[in-house]
Amino acid sequence: MNRQSVNITTRSPEETRALAEAIGRILTPGTVIALKGDLGSGKTAFVQGLAKGLDVPEGYYVTSPTYTLINEYPGRYPLCHADLYRLEAGVDFEEIGLYDVLGGDGVVAVEWPERLHPGALADYLAVRLEITGERSRQICITAYGLRADNLLNGIEKISREKLKQWG
């Protein structure tokens, strides 16, 4: 199957959040987003935008769950944010509840998804954030699976609108 991708450049954390917020507005229950990028590339800023797009109440401060592993936020659909950076080899993902979250009815954003067992993600959006300048990021979103493919069509439209808006 050919993989579809959408590429967009943001010039600030605010633009990264705005892009993710617009994407959050079109997500459906069960969506999984695999976030890849170096430390400081904007993965948490992206999740903050998703949270806003999913109507997570403003009183919730969305941060990277580096030490807690999974943060959950209420919204139009629950948002689960997992950060696997500090996981050690051999950790039981079932024991920490990750597989329950991945199979749930919310939206799941996973940082450092390469730490998952191969095949753990079947239908998902891969979001790669690359640092291209002090504040700018190249964001590549790739669909893996039918649900993700359908979402990517909407994301492509969003990216065109955002590029026009940002000039």
UniProtKB/TrEMBL annotation:
It is found in: Cytoplasm. GO terms for biological process: tRNA threonylcarbamoyladenosine modification. Keywords: ATP-binding, Cytoplasm, Magnesium, Metal-binding, Nucleotide-binding, tRNA processing. Pfam families: TsaE. One of its GO terms (molecular function) is ATP binding. InterPro entries: P-loop_NTPase (IPR027417), T6A_TsaE (IPR003442). Transmembrane segments: none annotated. GO terms for cellular component: cytoplasm. Belongs to the TsaE family. This is tRNA threonylcarbamoyladenosine biosynthesis protein TsaE. It comes from Desulfonema ishimotonii.
